[in-house]
Amino acid sequence: MKFTSVIKFLTGATVAIGATTLISEPSQACPTEEHKSCDVQVEVICSAEHVAPCPPENHSTYQPTSVHYPQKRNIFVCEKSHGVPTTFVRTPEGKYPIIKWVSSYFSGAGYTPEVRCKDVSKRFQTFYDNGVLNYITTGIFNNQPVVCVANTYGGPCQGVLFTLKRGQDASRVVQQLFDLRANPNEEPLRESGSRVYFDLNQYIENL
């Protein structure tokens, strides 16, 4: 009886020890649950290690401000020079006379030299502002010779400056008006067919 009791005791102790061993070894208990937990842990770690690069900071793109320099502008005015009505051009470099109005041919029609000076000076300014006052040339208007403006060399009249006397030599009149004889080597006067073309821009630059 005692021997049988000892055997039962040892058997119970062995079972208890085995159960304790299984409980104390979590690596062998519920392997499926532990594997899932590991998968979740690895996935989180991977997500943390492979973070997408941050988008570039929203820095405003630098665009240099364009600087607008004042454009050179010529002003045409009528003033008296030694008592003579004269068309002057005012440039950034100074004021220069370009036409002296001494003819009184149209005085009977109300076109005194002073009236002609003021009228033509205004037309100079208008054509200059419109970008067509590049060349002075000649033409015919109402059967009378006229001095007009052209945008290009050899181009047509694009605006009448003033009317000439019938029979006047247009080339000679233009030379006299702009006093080109004072600078014979720098005359910006050219002929195209039967017409003359006076480069006003070149003339003003040489004043």
Tell me what you see in this structure:
The chain starts with a helix and ends with a helix. A hairpin with a 2-residue loop joins strand 4 (135-141) and strand 5. It is 35% helix and 24% strand. The radius of gyration is 51 Å and the shape is globular. The chain has 207 residues and is an alpha+beta fold. A 5-stranded antiparallel β-sheet has the order 6-5-4-8-7. It is built from 5 helices and 8 strands. It has helices spanning 2-24, 31-49, 113-129, 170-177, 200-205; strands spanning 75-81, 84-91, 94-100, 135-141, 144-150, 159-163, 189-192, 195-199. Mean pLDDT is 71; it is low at 13-51 and 66-70. It folds into 2 domains: 2-49; 75-205, no CATH class.
What's the gist of this structure?
With 207 residues, this protein is of the alpha+beta class. Helices cover 35% and strands 24% of the residues. The radius of gyration is 51 Å and the shape is globular.
Structural class: alpha+beta
Content of β-strand: 15-25%
* Average predicted confidence as pLDDT: 71
For the termini, the CA-CA separation is 146 Å
Shape: globular
State the domain count.
2
Biggest sheet: strands, sense, closure? Answer: 5 strands, antiparallel
**Using only CA atoms, what is the Rg?**
51 Å
**Helix and strand element order:** HHEEEHEEEHEEH
User: Low-confidence parts, pLDDT < 50 over ≥5 residues?
Assistant: 13-51, 66-70
In percent, how helical is the residue content? 25-40%
Number of helices: 5
Instruction: Count all strands and give the number.
Output: 8
Order of strands in the sheet with most strands: 6-5-4-8-7
